[in-house]
Amino acid sequence: MRPWSERTPEAIREAFYSPAPAPIAHGDAFGSEDGGRAERPSSKPALVGLLVLGIKALKSTKILGLLGSLLVYALSLGWLAAGLLVAGLCIHEYGHVWAMRRLGVPTKGFYLIPFMGGVAIPARPFEKRHEEAYIAAMGPVFGLAATPLVLGLTWLLRGSLPHAAAAAQVLVFLNLFNLLPIVPLDGGRIIRSVVSSFSPAAGIALAVGTGLICGVLAWSFRAPILGLLGAIALLEVWNTRGSRCHLTALSSRHALRWLGVYAALMAVGAALLVGLGSLSGHTEVILSLRDI
Prior knowledge:
Blueprint: H1 9-17, H2 47-58, H3 61-77, H4 79-103, E1 107-113, E2 117-122, H5 129-145, H6 147-158, H7 161-178, H8 186-198, H9 200-221, H10 224-239, H11 252-280, H12 285-290
Antiparallel strand pairs: 1-2
Helix pairs in contact: 3-4, 4-5, 4-7, 5-7, 5-8, 5-11, 6-7, 7-11, 8-9, 8-11, 9-10
């Protein structure tokens, strides 16, 4: 063998990086030393593996949010009402996800939050006011469009038109509530997109104003949900300070069009709420929930 100093780089590389020789097999590929047949690996998944996968699935935030919402609502409203309520929330949130995909906005899907409804999360900030308005509007559009489906399904399950109307009435109310011009809600996002297209400062003022109003109403009427909405509005303004001023604005024509869409959604929701209330015999949604 040549001394170390005379070895070429290729020889050194070969000495250190050459693969190890394969072990000599005794018997054939699937045989044993004594010529007997060795057992092949089982193709069935192990029970332990399935249990691990099940535990991982249960740890998923989306599944936990879904099950948690269903359980919380079932404890106070019953399983049928809870199932219909969760289904309505899923339809509403899927409308947002569908809109994101249609516009090419990457999405992380939606999550259900007990007592809070749900939230659809984009994987990047919005770049245009049109994106914000369109994605916000599609939640109520899908939710209101599902009203006949909920009405027919509940009628089939309960065999009673008043009960079916009560279930559909709850779904309509949830979507109407989301259309209120409060910035964390869908209606507030639509209005903010229009207002901010003319004046970014006015859009910020709208968010701050609705947040403070929600805080005052929450204190006056002991309504924690309004306080939480107000806190979310103010927190969103703080976290996105400066960044939303650079969103591509709506043109005047498109801004007026979105105001018309917002007014039409409110009118359709109000008409459905009144009509279903007359069928169910209830004008209060809480009574409708308990009567499903």
